[in-house]
Amino acid sequence: MVTNLAQTDGDFSLNGLPNAGRMDVICRCVNSAFWLSDNLRNDTVFYIVMRGAPNPPITLKFVGEELKRMSPDERNIASHIKNLLSTKPGKIWQTDGMGLYAKKIDLDGLLGEIKGEIIYLDKNGKIEELKEDFVYVMGDNKGYSEKDIELLSKKGKKVSLGKTEYLSSQCITIINYKLDG
Ligand SMILES: C[S@@+](CC[C@H](N)C(=O)[O-])C[C@H]1O[C@@H](n2cnc3c(N)ncnc32)[C@H](O)[C@@H]1O
C-alpha cells in the first residue's frame, strides 16, 4: 500500500489514529492482510510506503510468519507501528523483533527489492486472473499520486477488481478471498 498521508514518526495518540495521517486506514489494511477467524496468514508480507510528515519516506513491512504479540484491533496494531517509528528507522531494515520492520525507502526502491510481477490495483484497469506470487500495490483513501502512477505504469500491470470502488482494506479481503479459492 502507498500512502502520502501517514505520519512518519511515533508522536501520535492511539486515541486519535485518523489524525495521524489516517493511521486507522493502515491498521485496517494490516488486519485484512493477516487475520483469519482463529489464525494468521503466515504466508503474507505486507508493505506500507508512508510519506506523511515529518520524516518521509518510511516503509513498514509486516511479515506474517514472524508476527507476535499483535492483536487484530486497530489500536494494538498502531501501538506496534508507533513504537517502531519512535526508534527513527534508517536505511537498513530495523525490526521490533515481533514481525514488524521499518526502513527509509520509497516505492521505487522497494519495488526493486521485492521479487514478483507487479500488479497495481485500479478500478479502471483490466480484469485478470489473480495469482499468489504477484506483488499487489494499492493506494490509500486518496488514491495514487501522479508520480506513483507514472512509476507503476512503467513497472507493472494495471488490474481491476471490478467497477465498484472499494476501500483499500476491502481490496485486500477480496484478493485474499479469490486466492483462497
Ligand atoms: C478508496 S480507493 C481510492 C479512492 C480515491 N478516491 C481514488 O480516486 O483513487 C483505495 C485504493 O483501492 C484500490 N481500489 C479500489 N477499488 C478498486 C477496484 N475496483 N479495482 C482495483 N483497485 C481498486 C486502488 O488501488 C485505490 O487506490
In short:
This protein is an alpha/beta fold and 181 residues long. The chain has helices at residues 23-34, 74-85, 107-113, 146-155, 168-180, and strands at 2-3, 45-50, 58-63, 94-95, 100-103, 118-127, 135-137, 157-160. It has one domain (2-176): Alpha/beta knot (3-Layer(aba) Sandwich), CATH 3.40.1280.10.
Can you characterise this structure?
- It is a single chain.
- The chain is α/β, with parallel strands linked by helices and 181 residues long.
- The chain has a single domain, classed as Alpha/beta knot, CATH 3.40.1280.10.
- It is 30% helix and 20% strand.
- The protein has helices spanning 23-34, 74-85, 107-113, 146-155, 168-180, and strands spanning 2-3, 45-50, 58-63, 94-95, 100-103, 118-127, 135-137, 157-160.
- It has a five-stranded mixed β-sheet, covered by helices on one side.
- α1 runs parallel beside α5 (168-180).
- S-adenosylmethionine binds next to β6 and α5.
